[in-house]
């Protein structure tokens, strides 16, 4: 993870392989049974219950299934802070697609590939959409597929969650089949994530990268009450077809619950208790440091802590963390000082274009933020930056995402102020979100620091 210049300086200081050998600085590395050469994992993790394993269903698993978030391959077109803006953008894209189907309908596949209009301001072509032109398939917008989503940590957005215009939704139609479907998922970093291990809960349809190429483990699973297939042939069509009859079952397996009941026979445990226990335990600094190399290469496995007292400590902490992370828009606003020229600020003064941190010399002043030309905030506690999710402090996600973004290729403007005014009816939303995420960060750290030391059962 060194920068290029640092790597070259390190190599230059060595001089040659010969001098390195002469310095006795070299050592032999033997790969372990997982073929790890460096960062060899702690094999004791394999003794614990798997959160889920799709390649081997024979072993004991805590969750019956899990899924990556939706991957659209055209985020600029199908994610937007403005619902009306998204509807207009998707309509424009589909109308252009249909016009290409009409224009090229008399050509064969090879001719279509050569003649198709690739203007990036009109559409984002992918192989699946291109094949629709070859098949002369036309589309129309399905407004029921415009949904609220979790796009990044502490960032909500509208999305066109449609099977035709998303590259893949993985198993999300079983987890969040419609806009009104209620569920909770624990998102964990996927294998090979470079930003370090993270965990974050959401109650909204998640994008693939809310946590780094994440996997999402659900509290509940939705299934159609009838085994008959839908018009499209999908067993779980979700919002892109009328489907009102669902049965809901638990995401945590009966065997998974029994696994923990056996460990604490005097306790009355429910699946939700175990669900929140998992969320609390995955925040444990002891767990994360002890199994850091494992968590960079495989999905988490969940130990049973030594005592029922510790189980409940992790479970209650998980509930408290979930409340913070799900309801972050409603926590108390952290009091900051506003430097704004002393004039009375109006709602219109809280429009944000791009927040930035001022500098003290060459270093950023993390205690302040330039919100816009009229407002500078001071008094940000440095401790708040210690709460990191998906490779960045939670506050940095707010700074990065509460902005106005113009895409050069498409010409699409994605304006966070639209979410503030249209969805939240609060022009001060980005400003207040920054204050609230400070509170979330500090309270998260407080809960994490209060977790018991990790002692596990044999």
Strands of the largest sheet, in order across it? Answer: 2-9-6-7
Strand content: 5-15%
End-to-end Cα distance, whole Å, is 36 Å
* Strand-pairing-aware structural class: alpha+beta
Low-confidence stretches: 228-233, 235-243
Shape: globular
Brief sketch in words of this structure:
By secondary structure, the chain is an alpha+beta fold. The chain has helices at 4-14, 17-22, 75-78, 83-104, 109-115, 127-134, 172-175, 254-263, 271-281, 285-290, 292-295, 308-326, 394-401, 416-423, 429-449; strands at residues 49-50, 67-68, 79-80, 146-152, 155-160, 185-188, 199-202, 205-206, 215-218, 220-224, 246-250, 301-302, 337-339, 359-360, 363-364, 368-370, 376-378, 388-389, 392-393, 404-406, 413-415.
What does this structure look like?
This protein is α+β, with helices and mostly antiparallel strands. 33% of the residues lie in helices and 15% in strands. The protein has 15 helices and 21 strands. It has helices at 4-14, 17-22, 75-78, 83-104, 109-115, 127-134, 172-175, 254-263, 271-281, 285-290, 292-295, 308-326, 394-401, 416-423, 429-449, and strands spanning 49-50, 67-68, 79-80, 146-152, 155-160, 185-188, 199-202, 205-206, 215-218, 220-224, 246-250, 301-302, 337-339, 359-360, 363-364, 368-370, 376-378, 388-389, 392-393, 404-406, 413-415. The strands form 8 sheets. The protein has a 4-stranded antiparallel sheet. It has a 4-stranded mixed sheet with strand order 3-5-4-8. A hairpin with a 5-residue loop joins strand 16 and strand 17. The protein is globular, with a radius of gyration of 25 Å. The two termini are 36 Å apart.
């Amino acid at each position: 993870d060194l920068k290029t210049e640092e790597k070259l300086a390190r190599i230059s200081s060595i001089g040659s392989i010969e001098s390195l050998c002469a310095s006795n600085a070299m050592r032999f590395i033997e790969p372990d049974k997982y073929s790890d050469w460096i960062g060899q994992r702690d094999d004791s993790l394999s003794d614990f219950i798997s959160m889920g394993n799709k390649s081997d269903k024979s072993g004991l698993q805590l969750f019956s299934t899990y899924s990556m978030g939706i991957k659209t391959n055209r985020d600029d077109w199908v994610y937007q802070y403005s619902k009306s803006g998204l509807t207009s953008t998707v309509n424009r894209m589909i109308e252009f697609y249909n016009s290409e189907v009409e224009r090229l309908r008399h050509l064969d596949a090879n001719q279509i590939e050569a003649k198709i209009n690739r203007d990036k301001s009109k559409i984002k072509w992918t192989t699946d959409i291109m094949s629709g032109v070859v098949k002369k398939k036309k589309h129309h917008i399905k407004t029921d597929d415009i949904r609220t989503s979790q796009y990044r940590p502490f960032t909500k957005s509208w999305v066109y969650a449609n099977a035709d215009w998303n590259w893949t939704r993985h198993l999300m139609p079983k987890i969040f089949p419609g806009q009104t479907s209620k569920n909770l998922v624990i998102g964990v970093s996927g294998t090979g994530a470079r930003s370090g291990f993270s965990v974050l809960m959401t109650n909204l349809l998640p994008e693939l990268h809310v946590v780094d190429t994440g996997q999402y483990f659900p509290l509940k699973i939705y299934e159609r009450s009838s085994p008959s297939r839908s018009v499209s042939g999908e067993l779980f069509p979700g919002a892109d077809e009328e489907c009102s009859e669902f049965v809901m079952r638990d995401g945590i397996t009966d065997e998974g619950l029994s696994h923990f009941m056996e460990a604490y026979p005097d306790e009355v445990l429910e699946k939700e208790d175990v669900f929140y226990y998992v969320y609390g335990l995955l925040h444990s600094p002891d767990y994360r440091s002890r199994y850091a190399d494992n968590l960079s290469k495989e999905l988490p496995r969940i130990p049973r802590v030594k005592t029922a007292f510790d189980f409940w400590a992790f479970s209650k902490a998980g509930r408290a963390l979930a409340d913070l992370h799900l309801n972050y828009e409603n926590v108390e606003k952290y009091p900051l000082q506003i430097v704004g020229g002393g004039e009375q600020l109006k709602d219109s003064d809280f429009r944000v274009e791009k927040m930035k941190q001022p500098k003290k010399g060459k270093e950023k002043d993390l205690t302040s933020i330039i919100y816009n030309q009229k407002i500078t905030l001071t008094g940000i506690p440095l401790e708040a930056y210690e709460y990191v999710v998906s490779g960045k402090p939670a506050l940095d996600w707010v700074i990065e995402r509460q902005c106005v973004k113009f895409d050069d290729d498409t010409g699409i403007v994605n304006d966070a102020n639209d979410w503030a005014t249209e969805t939240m009816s609060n022009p001060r939303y980005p400003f207040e979100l920054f204050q609230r995420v400070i509170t979330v960060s500090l309270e998260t750290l407080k809960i994490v620091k209060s977790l018991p030391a990790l002692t596990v059962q044999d």
